TrEMBL record:
Its EC number is 6.3.5.4. ATP binds at residues 291, 363-364. Keywords: Amino-acid biosynthesis, Asparagine biosynthesis, ATP-binding, Glutamine amidotransferase, Ligase, Nucleotide-binding. One of its GO terms (molecular function) is asparagine synthase (glutamine-hydrolyzing) activity. It catalyses: L-aspartate + L-glutamine + ATP + H2O = L-asparagine + L-glutamate + AMP + diphosphate + H(+). This is asparagine synthase (glutamine-hydrolyzing). CDD domains: Asn_synthase_B_C (cd01991), AsnB (cd00712). It is an enzyme of class 6 (ligase). Belongs to the asparagine synthetase family. The gene is asnB. InterPro entries: Asn_synth_AEB, Asn_synthase, ASN_synthetase/amidase, AsnB_N, GATase_2_dom, Ntn_hydrolases_N, Rossmann-like_a/b/a_fold. One of its GO terms (biological process) is asparagine biosynthetic process. GO terms for cellular component: cytosol. L-glutamine binds at residue 103.
Length: 595
């Protein structure tokens, strides 16, 4: 797991590109503290940079940029390929030879053997740049479910890319996108493909860019197609066995590491299952990392202890309180790559995991999205009826005192983004317009200027799963896990997003996958023989902090001098009265903070 950057340009003077890439890599050093490297072609038109976090093959053999033996293919890689040993054996049969135990070398050999068809064979989390000197092309490639980011900017036939937005913008002097605040206030994050910078985008997940180094022309193509058509699983018992087998395999191969590895243990269903499975595979090197609170409504210490008693591993637990938030909030804001209303929890747990000596951890992210663990799986059914309500009534929702009803104005738009923002959005178009001194018409134009090929209007639980995976998880949870983890030189792995596991789950018919008695019932039943009843037979808490109370007491967040206009001051007043969710005020605070 690392950080990467690069520039391909035919117009720069010698040494300019190298200096810029070196500067970007210096700004990315937090995510790759163990080593650094730079490759430049003879005339410095192509420069690739790398910062290394050593997890596999800790020797100098893992140094990057890495090339094949003929030095025709050069590559910088951020991520892990969990099936690289199987691919390596297959490639050896074709005559390939290897000089390291790295997955990077396997990717290079796979590309040499199969070309871009190799990308669909990879199982893992990754973003990489590959320079093919024979074809004179550069490929930017991103993993199937977008766990690892790869941002790019194109200007004057120059391609610049990096693992994070900030270094890309600072070194290349890219201006701010004037619409980022609209998107951020609506979502609580900046959704892909957009960023806070003008003309800086994320490579789409499961896709690759092919850049012609001579002409500056490019294409972006998909290599991974989700929802593959296979025989559907309709039998409950077969489904349970398939889930158990596929997740067990995912956990086993994601425990692969030459450095210390652990599990984030919140005490909920997902992290408890991962901890128990990981313990079956490797109970001698495993560590668990947990956070708990004095506020009993949020505290899961007893559930964490219950699982910790069942596993044989080192256990690290940390009490977090109001003072911790007050002390560290300025640093958390500084460590963000882009504004987000999430990430505080990921920042703290990553900090403690790193302090425990870990370089990699397993996270339970993805289970709620796949098995129906969020309230949106129930709420999405309301959209069927609401779509029949006259627009005049829906527009009136913008004036309701209760903030839950203000988002009704999204329902009148026939667009997946509007449906999602009704389910999960923060502010209504009218509220955003008031905060930013613009019009609701402009707000809607910006928000609905997003391209998606999702067109289902059934509003079933499979649709909720699509929204949660492709919008909330993709743009909020995965992005924040990557940024906050790498800020502490920590790789966060996600077994529930293993390609083979996701494919297995998506081939289970909805009536079996989403059972009505209990959220995530299929997942629970698949592991009832090892999962204590106390873990699943209780209300869902989620991995969250007591932030409603803590932020109300935080002098930075509630400083009235920051909130400039009438709409912003009204939101602050309602928050202080307990009538606005903390996430909405935190978003509003960051809009003022990043002025």
């Amino acid at each position: 797991m690392c950080r990467i950057a690069g520039i391909i340009s035919s117009s720069q003077q010698p040494n300019v590109n190298s200096k810029k890439v070196k500067a970007m890599c210096d700004l990315l050093a937090h995510g790759g503290p163990d080593d650094e490297g730079l490759f430049a072609d003879p005339d410095e038109k192509i420069v690739l940079g790398h910062r290394r976090l050593s997890i596999m093959d800790l020797s100098a053999n893992g140094h990057q940029p890495m090339s094949d033996q003929q030095q025709k293919i050069w590559m910088v890689f951020n991520g892990e390929i969990y099936n690289f040993q199987e691919l390596k054996e297959e490639l050896v049969a074709y005559g390939a030879t290897f000089h390291s135990q790295t997955d990077t070398e396997v990717i290079i050999a796979a590309y040499a053997q199969w070309g871009t068809a190799a990308f669909s064979k990879l199982r893992g989390i990754f973003a990489f740049a590959l320079y093919d000197s024979v074809k004179n092309i550069t490929l930017l490639v991103r993993d199937s479910y977008g766990v690892k980011p790869l941002y790019y900017h194109i200007q004057n036939n120059q391609l610049s890319f990096a693992s994070e937005v900030k270094p890309l913008g600072k070194v290349n002097d890219i201006p701010t996108d004037p619409n980022w605040k609209i998107r951020f206030l609506a979502y609580g994050y900046v959704p892909e493909p957009f960023t806070t910078l003008k003309g800086v985008y994320n490579i789409p997940k499961g896709s690759y860019m092919c850049w012609d180094n001579q002409t500056g022309k490019y294409t972006i193509e998909r290599y991974h197609l989700s929802f593959k058509q296979h025989t559907k699983i309709t039998d409950l018992r077969i489904a349970e066995e398939a889930v158990r087998t596929a997740l067990g395999k995912a956990v086993k191969r994601q425990l692969m590491a030459d450095a210390p590895i652990g599990v984030f243990l919140s005490g909920g269903i997902d992290s408890s299952i991962l901890t128990l499975l990981a313990n079956e595979v490797n109970n001698s090197l495993l560590k668990t990392v947990s956070i708990y609170f004095s506020e009993k409504t949020y505290d899961e210490y007893s559930f964490q202890a219950l699982i910790n008693q069942k596993v044989k591993c080192e256990q690290y637990t940390h009490l977090i309180n109001q003072k911790d938030l007050d002390d560290y909030l300025p640093q958390i804001l500084e460590d963000m790559d882009m504004p987000t209303t999430d990430g505080i929890n990921a920042w703290f747990i990553s900090k403690y995991a790193s302090e425990a000596g870990l370089k990699a951890v397993l996270s339970g992210l993805g289970a709620d999205e796949l098995f129906g663990g969020y309230p949106s799986f129930e709420r999405i059914g309301f959209l069927k009826g609401l779509k029949k309500v006259p627009n005049a009534i829906l527009r009136a929702g913008a004036n309701f005192a209760d903030e839950k009803f203000r988002k009704l104005s999204y329902v009148k738009y026939d667009h997946p983004v509007a449906n999602y923002l009704f389910l999960r959005g923060n502010y209504s178009p009218e509220e955003i317009a008031g905060i930013l001194n613009t019009t609701a018409v402009h707000v809607i134009e910006v928000l609905l200027d997003e391209h998606t090929n999702y067109s289902s209007k059934q509003f079933e639980k499979t649709d909720a799963s699509w929204y949660e995976m492709n919008m909330y998880m993709q743009n909020q949870l995965l992005k924040n896990s990557d940024v906050m983890g790498m800020r502490h030189a920590l790789e966060i792995r996600v077994p529930f997003l293993d390609e083979d596991f996701v494919e297995t789950v998506q081939n289970i018919v909805p009536d079996v996958r989403f059972q009505n008695q209990l959220p995530k019932k299929l997942l629970v039943d698949s592991f009832k023989d090892i999962l204590p009843r106390e873990i699943w037979d209780r209300p869902k808490m989620g991995f969250t902090f007591p932030l409603q109370e803590w932020m109300r007491k935080n002098p930075m967040i509630t400083d009235p001098a920051l909130y400039k206009n009438k709409q912003a001051r009204k939101a602050l007043d309602l928050f202080n009265k307990g009538q606005v969710h903390w996430g909405k005020l935190y978003a509003l605070y960051q809009v003022q903070y990043y002025q």
